[in-house]
Amino acid sequence: MRLFIAIELPASFKNEVARIQKEVKQLSSGGRFVPKENFHITLHFIGESQNLVEAAEAMAEAVRGIRPFELHLGKYSALEKGSRGSTSVLKVLGDMEELRAMYESLESALSDRGFSRERKQFTPHITLGRSVELDDISAGELERLSPNASMQVRGITLFESVREGSRMVYTPLHRERF
Known about the structure:
This protein is α+β, with helices and mostly antiparallel strands. 30% of the residues lie in helices and 42% in strands. Strands 2-6-5-4-7 form a 5-stranded antiparallel β-sheet.
């Protein structure tokens, strides 16, 4: 099973992300865009694993002592710019102290159970598309957009990721609330 742990997004949040994604699509000359139902904030990509019990235990440990917190959408950004375009994202802002505390606790709890730690620095974001091709003027226009959505985070979710044809389907396997 291909697994990852993420923060699910409410419909209103996804709608605003989709609005911004539509602008990116209109200004781009190509890319692979994430379906609206797959928008999320990744906390940890586990990869191939059958260790569902250990992952759920790590999630329970990670949220112990965490209180609900607020996040909102930040500005458009492009990550990993290369010859085949870049990854288009919306930054996530809000109660970063609580989010980072939960993230660090999750990393530690997963590591204690034999899962590898994330190698990249944690940069909370929502991916809009990959290999997105924008010229500098279009990218500048997108950076001026002002997304308007906020949400109360009250839990994290373990997802399975399965390829069905050309699409990825994310299925929630376990939710841990706080």
